[in-house]
Amino acid sequence: MNxxxxxxxxxxxxxxxxxxxxxxxxxxxxxxxxxxxxVAIWHGACALTQTTIFPTPLESFAAIFELARSxxxxxxxxxxxxxxxxxxxxAALVGIPLGLWIGWRTRSFLAFNPLVQGFRPISPIAxxxxxxxxxxxxxxxxxxxIFLASIFPIVVGTTAAVQNIPQVYVRSASNFGxxxxxxxxxxxxxxxxxxxxxxxxxxxxVAWLVIxxxxxxxxxxxxGYLVSDARNMGKxxxxxxAAMILIGLIGIVLDVLVxxxxxxxxxxxGFAKR
Amino acid sequence: MTQHSERGSEFAGRxxxxxxxxxxxxxxxxxxxxxxxxxxxxxxxxxxVPIKIVYLGHRDGTTLxxxxxxxxxxxxxxxxxxxxxxxxxxxxxILMHRMMxxxxxxxxxxxxxxxxxxxxxxxxxAGSIDGYIxxxxxxxxxxxxxxxxxxxxxxxxxxxxxxxxxxxxxxxIDEQRELVQELVDGIAKxxxxxxADLAHRMDAAEVVGKHFNRQNPELLKFVLSKPPDxxxxxxxxxxxxxxxxIMELALEMGVLKQRLEFEQYVxxxxxxxxxxxxxxxxxxxxxxxxxxxx
Amino acid sequence: xxxxxxxxxxxxxLLVSLAHVQLNIGWSQVNAIVREWxxxxxxxxxxxFLPVT
Lengths: 274, 294, 53
Hints:
The complex is a heterotrimer of chains A (274), B (294) and C (53).
Chain A: H1 2-15, H2 23-49, H3 57-69, H4 72-104, H5 106-119, H6 128-135, H7 139-163, H8 167-175, H9 180-215, H10 223-232, H11 237-260, H12 265-268
Chain B: E1 10-15, H1 19-27, E2 33-37, H2 38-46, E3 51-56, E4 59-60, E5 62-67, E6 82-85, H3 91-102, E7 111-114, H4 119-126, E8 131-135, H5 138-145, E9 148-153, H6 154-157, E10 164-169, H7 170-175, H8 177-196, H9 198-212, H10 217-225, E11 231-232, H11 240-253, H12 262-265
Parallel strand pairs in B: 6-7, 6-8
Antiparallel strand pairs in B: 2-10, 3-10, 4-11, 5-8, 5-9
Helix pairs in contact in B: 3-11, 4-5, 8-9, 9-10
Chain C: H1 2-25, H2 27-37, E1 44-49
């Protein structure tokens, strides 16, 4: 309990002068302080309820080290990243052109949008039995599930991006004599880029979320498998929470990486200054 | 369950976390052989999946647990209580109903809920269930953690209890008989070796706990030794009278809807007398980290 | 600009795929997988199980 109070105090104290510090410091100090506060509340809750089952922060971090020391951790992280890379990559390769096409042509939109909207709400988890039937119990199944999970945000976002292009861009471009492919490449695509990248960010988040759930069923490696395996080991909730923390951390890293795409000049104009 | 991988032909144990995926893999022919719950095997055959039971996985090995300080002393004390079972297509479910019949209780006098095996000890500790009946090592775990105590072992309720069976797809039986025979012989030999000496069981617990199941070897040693007949690995030939009894009970409970003849879902041709089988231990490879890291 | 992103993505995909094969599948298995795709019979018999008695 004392540890919790100490941590909480440290977190709050560091937040007090935060407003006066330079942005570069605030950038890491603020989230760190919030995280510390969260850990303090977690530890305090464990101490208060005197739970014997739910792991304390210390136990969970110890479990993280246990995982790190066993050779399996890297295997599982690589496995999950591998599946997400391929599933998300394929989804982007198929989804962006598809979204552009559906967004640009009215007839395509009328024809295919209902289909897209109809399939979108079906959770990839519901596809697992069919995935196993079609692709068996291995990486291909997992990649298929990620593909399904990622492609809908990408298609819908890209479609919306194209449809939201201000008419004035298109009209003034055609005034300059740009038509067809040139119009598309030099006006439509750049105009849609910011929103397309946003949809990629969302899709990656969904992909990372789904891979964990998908790996709980039938896979033999990966972070989701780690959670499921820890569960089967008996009372190893410290490992479960440790795996959850790792999943979250990697999720943050992935998001930061994709956000870098927003920094390119061609795209920067589309995002409000921060 | 203990798995021994053999060379000569190569067998690979594939660990799953629930039966639904095994079921789908068997149907889709991604998996040609597996250990599954006996009633589930019957259900699959009834739905037209071409599999046959060729051997048993073990005998006994299931325990009915109650909370450490529960006042219940016999089965009648479970009236009105909430007991967890692993699956409705499990022999644990059938066993509960068999006991209710024997004790003159109606089928709805105990509330049975389906829960994945790893959740049973936690649910008992949290008080959301009054007891559970499931395969080891989850009962032993509650015992070692001090949250539960065994009310009955299966040897006290339904001696030589059958829980999991080895099923093989018909195509494999037809096309690669020798392979299936080798698999069954391997299991038989392993079982004989396990039951021959307690030291063998301890050795197996170390190997399985560390390399295959990632369960605590101490827990597995407890399961395999206290008492030594908590679970048995010999006498694994599927017998008609055992399965007919299961079939009758399952039909009565409504778990199975269609009566099947023993020969429709069991193939006993692979059973060989135990006296003729023995491992040559020197020839068996020890599991290496590389071989079992998958 | 777009070229850098594309190359980076391809490089990442290559690296993570190689790492995955190295760590999880094993190079010996790759041979078996390719042969299975081409229609040959599987040489190993997979036997499924649950870690519960």
